[in-house]
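Reviewers of the previous submission asked for a worked example of the structure-prediction workflow described in the proposal, so we include one complete record here. The input consisted solely of the amino acid sequence. No template or homolog information was supplied to the procedure at any stage.
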Amino acid sequence: MAIAALLVVVLLVGWLGWLLARPLPRWSALAGILPAEAPSAGAEAAALIAAERRRHLVALLVGGVAGVACWWAQASNSRLVGLPVLIVPLVVWIGWAAVLSLPAARPPAVPDGGTRSADLTVRSARTFGPAWALPLPAFLALLVAGGTAIAGMVSGTDETGRFRQLEYASTAYQLDPTGTVVTEILAGQGSAGPFPGWYYGVPILGLLVLGCLAGLGAMSRIALRPRPADTRLWPLDDALRTLGAYVVTTGSAALLGIQLGVLGLMAAIPLRSASMTENLSIGEVWSGAATPQGPLAALALATAGGSVLLILAGAVLGGLALRGTAELVRWRRTARTAASGDPS
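From that input alone, the workflow returned the following structure tokens.
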């Protein structure tokens, strides 16, 4: 398992390096979209960009409010033992993607001098996104689901009956009167927590399904929304769809990666506690301190290291998604300048 975790981390780091080396999708045909002799097209383009920008900003606001609500729920009810805080990335993802999956505003009408046309091209959720648009979030979602299920199956109950403890076989030693030499070995059962067992896992799996539906809905909405009737706006429409798909897929991967990293860190601490032991035999001298050793120690270390990298990668991807949203502000400013005919 440690080797598998290390392989996932290596693949993630390699992909992230490749992603960072690629330019952000940009609007490369502004001059052709907004010719000086057609200011009406420029005004319609500015309106189209403004509507898209508004959707993304509202989505960010809703996601942020959802995350704050989770922190408030935990602060107001400590009996939830960290559940609202643990699911913050998934709740933010659902709120953010749900807004982006809502129906878009009606496309602009054809202005004077424009040409009306219909686009019969078949489009799907993968038409405008990058090559990894669906595979990467799907892979991370499967890791979250699989890891949560495995953690749930090995979890045990705490004193309140909630499945949030890691149960493991433990060994106790009976010592001589001096307290140094082992005289008897006692097999027992130990537990450590908090661990992402079923108490946390069931809500996470439910929210994961909702998040996947919201993310797919946002991608489908980007691909299937109506074209502007004016053909001069089609290159801009393609650019907006491409940027929107980039933001949705990058943001989804970021939040899933952070969620997976948080779960991994939560699991690594009990795993390390379970590995704290000494393999002694009768007659040996007890050193008085246990150290992490064995497969559980290696698994705890790999899980912790991989989780930190996942959180860092999620932060980088989240920054790229925010950068893509910021592009809409720049595009709208450029479109308004072109529409007004002011070269400054």
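Residues 13 and 254 are 13 Å apart (CA to CA). We consider this example representative of the routine output the project will generate in years two and three.
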